[in-house]
């Protein structure tokens, strides 16, 4: 017998008024389970309940119940602070409530509030607050920690511990688990969230000693974390003991740490470490000397310089086309090509383009000459050993500045270039630049010297250099003062020195030169943003950008967004939007969403800022969301918005391939079109040229990144990109973008810092990360006179007249004799011309060279096409893009193995290679790995072969066949070489040779041909449920265990695959998805049909879709498993028993005998379900839109004429329909309202047959007894879906068709279908 439902709590509430305490105790106990249903009614008596909680006449247990009752009422009223207060007073009653089924949401909310309150009190206590923490609150928090640890939820416990300043908990967890990944998690959490600097440093100093000593045998998986920690703390006192502890036994690890510290460490920090390293004894001195040498940074710079020189893949034809399209006498166009060439050749030391175009170079004048000379610094960046020699003819001579007109621009540019060459090299060149700055009188030379000094001495905190620059600033020259302002900030970068800041702010207010004011704003953000002068507010915005770079600080983001939409200055608004990139570059996927609306602003300056924000934050990611926002902006009505869009696209698509990014080819084509269009606005053409420079930067061997390989902020890159953004005002500052260029390669070094020859594996198709193909020369159009086209009707009339005239012997005057060639060209009768075209592949319409394929041209057959391997072997010193790093492994039999993980996203196996080598999607953002790797030599007794550096010597200044670019320092008598490159005869480096892949490193095949993706393999059974050996030599299989709902992300995942295997209807492959998968040729789906695939559209595109049969009675078994589960409350009773509910028997099951089973749909499954129901002595009734009495009788089901009648009569309703437009929501809110309050609803067919929202409402209101669901509107069911929290519904994850025998049929026949496709004869093909 089913218990009757209660309609009011009035009777129980009345007992609270009784004088006898026993009645009150009973009422308090009885009211607690009634709160969810009658909380509004109970809330009217809340004052009485609170008084009972405080009453002394009731026992403690009753008072606890009163507190719990009050807490639950306040929870439903939304008063969570009050709810927490009374929950703390409930003591054991609240503890018992945590185990009550159905109270999960209340308990979770109170606990969450308790955590927030505890965190707040702990923070106040740490800052000197006097409020004591309630012991009861402390007890709850300790219970949470204990529960998290007991259940293995260590990261959750670490997160709470960090926020509540409970570092002892973190230590306790680590002592228990010895898991260094938890320490790394804690470190990343405190670095990447908005904790105060003092607390951040406290946590890092606490964590550091917990990390175990790194050793080669352990594979040092935490080396990235330790490096990031040390660089962030900027503490030599922690770094020195670590390095000395590794000497001499773990010296290879010490070398690796030194190289990694150089990647992200500030100059003063590295100098401090170098200075404090001990001298060592006879055995250790060479090791310490080598560490000191590495820590100068010069070893890294030389290695990366050699890498860029050897792997240079610049396409000179792109530059040649730009030069021919842009008018060289225009200053803006000359600068555009200068920057494009400088970026494309950055760090390569290749000046071939400049040598071949000296005439163009000589057309530079004034500031474009300054930029052209400074471009040499970008090209030779890192070549600090020969920097002064290369720039010698352009630098001011010992006698001082040249008096020749125009020479100052070359001299100033050369000084700036010298700074760029020495950026990050920690050389003594700053002394030379200081001397030149003090000796020079001209503002142009001072401008270049100041910029060079700032870049070369960035972060050095050299007070002498600061004073020299300040003296120039106080001369109040706009040109020299602007550069000095920049340089002062660069020199003191990161020092937070108060006096220099105060001096610059005071001067910025007093000076009348706008150019100086703009650059002097520094740390005091509030003061600057409150200024009336928009230029100072502009500085304040960039102060926010640099101070909070990489933090994603919510307050800073909110402040910038507010400025972006409210400031009265367009410049400030543009800067605010751009500055978002500096805050969010570690989370690039968030940026498109944040700037989407800003990119549609009515204000073009805001739109322009949005373009740069996308470009900088998403640089090098190829993020399609960002590209899709930018592509329409390339057609914006405002020229500088288009300019920004072109630049941003180049940043985002750097080092992308056509296989990895579907937008790359179209973007390159767009650049060429815009640059060559003489009617296009100069600003847009400038932007397209810069975009071309970025997309092929550094010989196509660098990416743009604002963080180091250790995961720390790359300060010089951040500042360099901030300086680049100022090109809006001053083009020469664009050169600073090269500071954010990061070489992307793997450079393996032995203990002696030599480069051995060996190979490693890239577990991805070569095309996915290949260099772009070279640009093909533009083919000249062959213009041929074309016969006038004549309509066919006219031609027939003329033909008849001609025939008649010929018969009469009187030819018409208009009928001149036409040769056969002209007849063919005229195409009058529209007949197929079987003679070969005289002009080759010439269009019959335009008579120009085209890429049209003639019908007679043989088309390569599919079977004859050489399939691309799914991996490749790469030599040491090869380019490896950031996205490629997760696919790199070192073969187990390789002589050389890295002493640390290749990337932060891979883990070293015992053999030294990554444990997993599948080619899945690339990580969202590169943050660590690659670069310089110290290698352990596993076979040191064998002879080694090393890569030798290319040597280059400075040529004689008297032997040069080439005249230098005039700069005023070269006379007609003496014509020294321009030293644009050191080795004039050295050829461009050839690309690395291709290596045949070794199949020993792959699990699927010895000769992989066809790429296959298995989707939605949740249980990871696809490869074990069938024998794949029949195709193992013909395919490479990637298995994905998740479902992607976002179409763009799905296309990105599947873009490269030829064959896709889908599991039933988990992933939707719509027509729009099919249109974006050019490589797809075959889909193998499990089951005889799949409504998630647009089979008809696939067929129209030549894509075959094959299905499979099934085996067993899986779905029928599952239907009855759900019916019996809900009718007997199995899931609810199981949860209650396991939760420790003291009540032993709670629910009264529904007996099936004599009950009515209503079937909506009486097909095969419905009929089989009915037969089993008969065994339970149930009445079975049926209805469907197409059911007839005859078919119902054949199934032994009682026919019901209407759906409403079936619903009203049934105790259990089960759906067995195919989903279509007519059956969608066939059970809606109205139909659900017809069910009995004691009825159960079962759905194992398709989720959308039922209106899910209406069902949730019915279940929440408990207007039916419950439901059993195996299918849902969205699958997998979202984690926060309301159905997951309902107690009266039993859920299964669409496993109705799942069992071992069915999977064997599915996957066995799938393999057969793939084999048949590979043989050219697909079988079990589905028809659309």
Give the helices and strands, then pairings.
Layout: H1 10-15, H2 21-31, H3 35-43, H4 46-54, H5 60-77, H6 80-89, H7 92-97, H8 104-126, H9 135-150, H10 154-163, H11 167-177, H12 180-192, H13 197-207, H14 223-233, H15 236-245, H16 251-264, H17 267-276, H18 285-295, H19 298-310, H20 316-325, H21 331-344, H22 352-356, H23 358-362, H24 366-379, H25 387-390, H26 407-421, H27 429-439, H28 443-456, H29 463-473, H30 478-491, H31 498-510, H32 514-520, H33 525-529, H34 534-547, H35 554-566, H36 570-584, H37 591-595, H38 604-617, H39 624-633, H40 639-652, H41 664-676, H42 682-695, H43 697-700, E1 702-704, H44 715-724, E2 741-743, E3 745-749, E4 759-762, H45 792-808, H46 820-826, E5 872-875, E6 878-879, E7 888-889, E8 896-898, E9 931-937, E10 1010-1014, E11 1035-1039, H47 1047-1054, E12 1059-1062, H48 1071-1075, E13 1082-1085, H49 1095-1100, E14 1104-1106, H50 1114-1127, H51 1130-1138, E15 1156-1160, H52 1164-1175, E16 1179-1183, H53 1189-1194, E17 1198-1199, H54 1203-1209, E18 1212-1215, H55 1229-1232, E19 1240-1243, H56 1252-1260, E20 1266-1269, E21 1289-1291, H57 1300-1318
Parallel strand pairs: 3-9, 10-11, 10-12, 12-13, 13-14, 15-16, 15-18, 16-17, 18-19, 19-20, 20-21
Antiparallel strand pairs: 1-2, 3-6, 4-5, 4-7, 8-9
């Amino acid at each position: 017998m089913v218990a009757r439902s209660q309609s009011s709590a009035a009777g129980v509430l009345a007992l609270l008024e009784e004088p006898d305490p026993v009645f009150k105790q009973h009422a308090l106990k009885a009211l607690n389970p009634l709160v969810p249903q009658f909380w509004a009614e109970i809330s009217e008596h809340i004052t009485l309940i609170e008084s009972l909680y405080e009453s002394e006449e009731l026992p403690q247990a009753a008072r606890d119940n009163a507190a719990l009752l009050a807490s639950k009422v306040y929870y439903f009223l939304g008063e969570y602070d009050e709810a927490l207060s009374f929950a703390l007073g409930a003591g054991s009653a609240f503890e018992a409530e945590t185990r009550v089924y159905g109270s999960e949401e209340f308990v979770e909310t109170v606990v969450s509030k308790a955590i927030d309150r505890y965190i707040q009190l702990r923070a106040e206590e740490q800052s000197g607050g006097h409020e004591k923490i309630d012991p009861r609150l402390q007890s709850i928090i300790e219970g949470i920690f204990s529960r998290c640890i007991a259940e293995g939820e260590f990261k959750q416990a670490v997160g709470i511990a960090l926020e509540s300043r409970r570092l002892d908990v973190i230590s306790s967890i680590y002592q228990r688990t010895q898991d260094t990944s938890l320490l790394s998690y804690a470190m990343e959490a405190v670095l990447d969230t908005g904790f105060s600097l003092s607390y951040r440093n406290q946590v890092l100093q606490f964590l550091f000693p917990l990390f175990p000593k790194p050793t080669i045998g352990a594979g040092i998986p935490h080396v990235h974390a330790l490096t990031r920690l040390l660089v962030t703390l900027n503490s030599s006192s922690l770094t020195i003991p670590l390095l000395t502890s590794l000497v001499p036994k773990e010296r290879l690890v010490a070398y690796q740490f030194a190289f990694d510290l150089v990647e992200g460490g500030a100059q003063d920090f590295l100098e401090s470490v170098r200075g404090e390293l001990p001298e060592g004894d006879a055995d250790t001195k060479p090791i310490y000397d080598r560490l000191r040498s590495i820590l100068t940074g010069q070893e890294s710079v030389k290695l990366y310089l050699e890498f860029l020189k050897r792997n240079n893949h610049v396409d000179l034809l792109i530059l040649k086309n730009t030069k021919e399209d842009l008018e060289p006498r225009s200053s803006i166009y000359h600068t555009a090509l200068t920057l494009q060439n400088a970026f494309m050749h950055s760090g390569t030391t290749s000046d071939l383009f400049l040598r071949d175009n000296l005439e163009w170079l000589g057309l530079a004048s004034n500031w474009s000459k300054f930029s052209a000379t400074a471009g040499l610094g970008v090209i030779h960046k890192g070549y600090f050993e020969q920097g002064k020699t290369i720039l010698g003819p352009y630098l001011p001579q010992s006698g001082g500045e040249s008096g020749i007109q125009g020479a100052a621009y070359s001299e100033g540019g050369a000084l700036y270039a010298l700074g760029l060459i020495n950026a990050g090299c920690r050389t003594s060149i700053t002394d030379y630049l200081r001397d030149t700055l003090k000796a020079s009188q001209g503002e142009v030379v001072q401008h270049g010297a100041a910029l060079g000094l700032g870049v070369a001495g960035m972060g050095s905190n050299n007070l002498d250099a600061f004073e020299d620059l300040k003296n120039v600033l106080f001369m109040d020259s706009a040109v020299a003062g602007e550069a000095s302002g920049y340089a002062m900030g660069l020199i003191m970068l990161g020092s937070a020195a108060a006096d220099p800041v105060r001096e610059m702010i005071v001067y910025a207010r007093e000076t009348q030169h706008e150019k100086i004011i703009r650059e002097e704003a520094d740390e005091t953000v509030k003061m600057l943003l409150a200024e009336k002068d928009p230029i100072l507010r502009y500085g304040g915005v960039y102060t926010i950008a640099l101070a909070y770079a990489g933090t994603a600080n919510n307050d800073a983001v909110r402040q910038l967004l507010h400025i972006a939409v409210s400031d009265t200055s367009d410049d400030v608004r543009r800067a605010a939007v751009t500055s978002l990139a500096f805050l969010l570059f570690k989370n690039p996927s968030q940026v498109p969403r944040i700037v989407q609306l800003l990119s549609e602003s009515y204000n073009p300056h805001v739109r322009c800022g949005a373009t740069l924000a996308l470009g900088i934050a998403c640089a090098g990611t190829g993020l399609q969301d960002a590209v899709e926002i930018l592509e329409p902006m390339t057609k914006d009505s405002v020229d500088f918005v288009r300019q920004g869009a072109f630049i941003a696209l180049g940043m985002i698509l750097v080092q992308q391939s056509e296989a990895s990014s579907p937008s790359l080819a179209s973007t390159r084509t767009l650049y060429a079109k815009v640059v060559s269009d003489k009617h296009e606005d100069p600003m847009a053409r400038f932007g397209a040229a810069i975009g071309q420079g970025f997309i092929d930067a550094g010989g196509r061997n660098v990416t743009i990144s604002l963080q180091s390989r250790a995961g720390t902020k790359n300060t010089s890159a951040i500042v360099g990109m901030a300086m680049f953004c100022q090109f809006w005002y001053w083009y020469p500052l664009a050169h600073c973008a090269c500071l954010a260029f990061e070489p992307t390669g793997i450079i393996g070094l032995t203990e002696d810092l030599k480069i051995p020859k060996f190979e490693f594996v890239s577990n991805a198709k070569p095309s996915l990360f290949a260099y772009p193909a070279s640009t093909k020369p533009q083919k000249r159009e062959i213009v041929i006179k074309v016969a006038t086209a004549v309509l066919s009707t006219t031609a027939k009339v003329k033909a008849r007249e001609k025939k008649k005239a010929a018969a009469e012997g009187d030819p018409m005057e208009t009928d001149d004799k036409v040769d056969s060639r002209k007849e063919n060209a005229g195409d009058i009768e529209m007949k197929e011309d079987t003679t070969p075209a005289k002009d080759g592949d010439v269009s019959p319409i335009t008579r120009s060279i085209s890429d049209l394929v003639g019908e007679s041209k043989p088309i390569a057959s599919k079977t004859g096409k050489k399939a691309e391997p799914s991996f490749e072997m790469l030599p040491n010193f090869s380019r490896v893009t950031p996205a490629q790093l997760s696919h790199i492994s070192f073969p187990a039999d390789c002589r050389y193995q890295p002493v640390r993980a290749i990337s932060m996203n891979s883990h070293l196996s015992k053999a030294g290679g990554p444990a997993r080598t599948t080619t899945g999607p690339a990580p969202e953002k590169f943050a660590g790995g690659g670069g310089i790797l110290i290698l352990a030599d596993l076979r040191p007794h064998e002879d080694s072969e090393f890569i030798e550096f290319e040597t280059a010597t400075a040529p004689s200044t008297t032997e040069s066949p080439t005249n230098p670019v005039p700069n005023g320092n070269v006379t007609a008598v003496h014509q020294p070489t321009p030293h644009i490159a050191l080795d004039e005869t050295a050829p461009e480096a050839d690309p690395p040779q291709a290596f045949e892949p070794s199949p020993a490193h792959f699990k699927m095949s010895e000769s992989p041909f066809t790429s296959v993706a298995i989707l939605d393999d949740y249980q990871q059974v696809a490869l074990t449920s069938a024998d794949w050996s029949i195709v193992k030599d013909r395919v490479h299989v990637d298995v994905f265990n998740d479902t992607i709902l976002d179409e763009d992300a799905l296309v990105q995942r599947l873009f490269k695959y030829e064959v896709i295997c889908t599991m039933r209807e988990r992933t939707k492959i719509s027509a729009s998805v099919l249109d974006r998968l050019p490589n797809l040729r075959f889909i193998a789906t499990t089951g005889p049909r799949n409504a998630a695939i647009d089979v008809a559209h696939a067929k129209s595109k030549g894509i075959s879709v094959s299905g499979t049969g099934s085996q067993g009675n899986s779905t029928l078994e599952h239907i009855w498993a759900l019916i019996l589960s809900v009718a007997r409350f199995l899931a609810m009773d199981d949860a209650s028993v396991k939760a420790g509910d003291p009540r032993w028997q709670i629910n009264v099951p529904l007996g099936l005998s004599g009950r009515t089973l209503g079937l909506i749909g009486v097909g095969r499954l419905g009929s089989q379900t009915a037969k089993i129901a008969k065994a339970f002595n149930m009445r079975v009734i049926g209805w469907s839109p197409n059911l007839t009495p005859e078919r119902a009788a054949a199934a032994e089901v009682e026919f019901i004429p209407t759906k409403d009648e079936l619903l009203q009569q049934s105790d259990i309703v089960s759906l067995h329909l195919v989903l279509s437009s007519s059956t969608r929501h066939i059970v809606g809110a109205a139909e659900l309202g017809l069910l009995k309050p004691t009825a159960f609803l079962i759905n194992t067919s398709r989720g959308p047959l039922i209106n899910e929202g209406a069902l949730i409402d019915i279940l929440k209101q408990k207007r039916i007894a419950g439901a059993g669901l195996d299918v849902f509107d969205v699958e997998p069911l979202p984690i926060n879906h309301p159905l997951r929290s309902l107690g009266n519904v039993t859920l299964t994850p669409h496993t109705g068709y799942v069992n071992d025998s069915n999977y064997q049929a599915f996957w066995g026949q799938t393999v057969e279908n793939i084999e048949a496709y590979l043989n050219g004869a697909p079988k079990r093909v589905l028809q659309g």
